[in-house]
Amino acid sequence: MKQEDVIYCVGTEKSFSDAVVAVLKAVDQKNWTVFQIIDIQERLAAKGFKQDALKIIEICSGKHANKLLLQNKLVSLCMPCKINVFVDKNKVFIAGMRPSIVSQLFDGVKQDDASAVEAELKEIIDSAR
After folding, report:
1. What's the whole-model pTM score?
2. For the chain, which domains are there?
3. How confident is the model at residue 8 (pLDDT cuts 50, 70, 90)?
4. CA distance 83 to 103
5. 20 and 93 Cβ atoms separated by less than 8 Å
6. Are 127 and 26 in contact (CB under 8 A)?
């Protein structure tokens, strides 16, 4: 399995901060919910480590979450969905796991339902780009 099979990642010309704001706006436009934003750079700096900018934005669609949880409660191990905004080699990226993979990992999860989640997640990422 290749990284591209599991991760959807795009570069952006936006600044790091603008990319984070764009993701938040795109999440809102899709009527998903932001659970929390984790600032990895800040948390590691508090421990004495230096890291490029990285924020993990935890998001959820109640409609999709409910559907998948009814199929297999263990899918909750992959929830909530995360969109990462990060800097690597002075370039800003927006990335997320491909939710369609859960249909291969958890019994009873329908491919069509997992793919529907992925389609919306990709729309959020592409809109934020």
Report:
1. 0.94
2. 3-128 (3.30.310.70)
3. very high
4. 19
5. no
6. yes
